[in-house]
UniProtKB/TrEMBL annotation:
Protein's UniProt keywords contain Hydrolase: yes
Protein known as: CP-type G domain-containing protein
Keyword tags: Cytoplasm, GTP-binding, Hydrolase, Nucleotide-binding
Native organism taxonomy: Eukaryota, Viridiplantae, Streptophyta, Embryophyta, Tracheophyta
Biased composition (Acidic residues): 484-497
Length: 577
């Protein structure tokens, strides 16, 4: 066979290769024209036009003449009484505004639809409803007294939630046990009842092994008073028990799993939780089947914020890894259905950041809702940790010594973020390439310890009296309590008489601040001591004549003055020898 001859096999392979290339190009152009993007959570968008363009896919534009973000007032003089009163008045006005606009803070509703609708019509209706919801939140952001947290701005993520809510009979909202009300969305419960009045919402309080038994008792009492269906649960403990492992973390104490007289305070195991979920879901199915069409299996949907343990819970219930799990929020991209038995099916929803009122977005970073690796200002997030975890707990966990407050400062103030980061870097030897402490690395490690439970902290239910809270904190002394009356406990400390600082202490503090920020030399600023009266008499010094220097007077020409000293001539007789 000659070189010039072309075989049929080679020609067919070349044609197939060219056809595949052309087909991939056509698909790329098709998806590019449709502006299809990878399903990704979007919580930070600086320009409102970008949000509208993403919602309508470049079909409509919405312009805002002023910025959406409203700066918070910053009180530089924290020791003055006027600034304290102004901050309290601002917070009171903010609470009033939040109560007035609480009904406007909703999750987006799916517009009514029928199976006869076309895909294009349904898509256009959902985009229009989502656009109206975004405009409503923009009007809330225009209010200077309201601060909205970052929330989910991708329509495709909300579509996943709509499908899960419509399919599920029992909706399980997974929350973090250390602050359940922060992760709870009351409007989501109302929306589920709007879809079907027979649906129920269960609060799955995950990571309950990080709470002491007396704290779980308080939360159980609060849930019962507010008619909230709840279950205490620990996905990590259930997974370890399923694999036959022992939890090595010292902060997950076995005492937290001790049996109590109240069955609702006990942390559920895997089999107990499956039985409870199946019982609650089947009860809903029975009530619905009595009035509507018959259906055999029950569907349980899991919803909640990112990084609260939804996928870990489903993996523990299924008995094997069926969904991706990571400490970074937003791992689950699409809702997944998992069949447990002929009577029970689980449905996992991607984590969503629901809109809410808050003082800052750094609290969401410290809570694990927003990714830690994407934060740009680490000191603000570390300050949230320093405010919620007591000083002695931080020093005990990390085996470090934090700087004490100055004599003219409030002695009960929490440590500053800079103090905590520098002490942590000094104890671990974290130094950046610039020679300064590597605060970014230290901040990420501290935040991961805070989220993982190494730094103990938990919130108490609202309405708990100050006396009970202080009594509990003194009797246990192991965790950090974040009660609703924590701000009132600082009033007594601020009114205490404080000793006025001396000039030496003030100068020493200023010099240490300048040295830490590279504003001064390493020479220590010393204050001249006052000498005794008998040592103040000094020998008067002779004033030097400096008339030879340059003089720029009116008569002078700017040139130096030179004095010539001429020795007088000897006019006496010359003596000869």
């Amino acid at each position: 066979m000659g070189k010039t001859e072309k075989t049929t096999l080679g020609r067919s392979l070349v044609k197939h290769h060219n056809h595949m290339i052309q087909e991939s190009k056509d698909k790329g152009k098709y998806y590019k024209n449709l502006q299809k993007k990878v399903l990704e959570s979007v919580t930070e968008v600086s320009d409102i036009d970008a949000i509208i363009e993403q919602a309508e896919e470049a079909e409509r534009l919405f312009t805002i003449n002023h910025s959406n973000t409203t700066p918070l007032p910053i009180n530089l003089d924290t020791n003055s009484s006027s600034s304290t009163v102004a901050a309290e008045e601002w917070r009171e006005q903010q609470k009033i505004e939040e109560a007035l606009h609480a009904s406007s803070l909703q999750v987006p509703r799916r517009p009514p639809w029928t199976p006869e609708m076309s895909v294009e019509e349904l898509d256009a209706n959902e985009k229009q409803a989502f656009l109206s919801w975004r405009r409503m939140l923009v009007r809330l952001e225009e209010n200077e007294k309201l601060v909205l947290t970052p929330f989910e701005k991708n329509l495709d993520i909300w579509r996943q939630l709509w499908r899960v809510l419509e399919r599920s009979d029992l909706i399980v909202m997974v929350v973090d046990a250390r602050d359940p009300l922060f992760y709870r969305c009351p409007d989501l419960e109302a929306y589920a009842r709007e879809i079907d009045e027979h649906k129920k919402i269960m609060l799955l309080v995950n990571k309950a092994d990080l709470l002491p038994p007396y704290v779980r008792e308080k939360w159980a009492e609060y849930f019962r008073l507010n008619n909230i269906l709840f279950v205490f649960w620990s996905a990590i403990a259930a997974t370890a028990a399923l694999e036959g492992k022992v939890l090595k973390e010292p902060w997950r104490k076995p005492d937290n799993f001790q049996k109590t007289d109240d069955p609702e305070v006990v942390i559920y195991g895997r089999d107990e939780l499956l039985s409870r979920l199946q019982y609650e879901a089947q009860e809903i199915v029975k009530v619905r089947n009595s009035s509507e069409s018959q259906r055999e299996n029950a569907v349980v949907g899991f919803v909640g914020y990112p990084n609260v343990g939804k996928s870990s819970t489903i993996n523990a219930l299924v008995g094997q890894k069926r969904t991706g799990v990571t400490s970074t929020p937003g791992k689950t991209k699409h809702f997944q259905t998992l069949i447990i038995s002929d009577e029970l099916m689980l449905c996992d929803c991607p984590g969503l950041v629901f809109p809410s009122f808050s003082s800052s977005r750094y609290e969401m970073i410290a809570s694990g809702v927003l990714p830690i690796d994407r934060m740009t200002e680490h000191r603000e997030a570390i300050q949230v940790v320093a405010d919620k975890v007591p000083r002695h707990v931080i020093e005990s966990v990390y085996n470090i010594s934090l700087p004490k407050p100055k004599p003219y400062e409030r002695q009960s103030r929490p440590p500053l973020a800079a103090e905590l980061l520098r002490a942590y870097c000094a104890s671990r030897g974290y130094v950046a390439s610039s020679g300064l402490p590597d605060e970014t690395k230290a901040a990420r490690l501290i935040l991961k310890d805070y989220i993982g439970g190494k730094l103990p902290h938990f919130a108490m239910p609202p309405g708990m009296s100050l006396g009970e809270e202080s009594k509990i904190d003194e009797s246990q002394g192991t965790g950090a309590v974040e009660g609703s009356d924590s701000e009132d406990s600082d009033v007594g400390d601020e009114t205490e008489s404080e000793q006025a600082p001396g000039i030496g202490e003030v100068l020493d503090d200023l010099s240490s601040f300048d040295l830490a920020n590279g504003l001064a030399s390493s020479k220590k600023v010393t204050v001249k001591k006052q000498t005794a009266s008998h040592k103040q008499h000094k020998k008067p010094q002779r004033k030097k004549d400096r008339n030879w220097r340059v003089q720029n007077t009116e008569d002078g020409d700017g040139m130096p003055l030179v004095r010539v000293f001429q020795k007088p001539a000897n006019t006496g007789p010359l003596m000869m020898r």
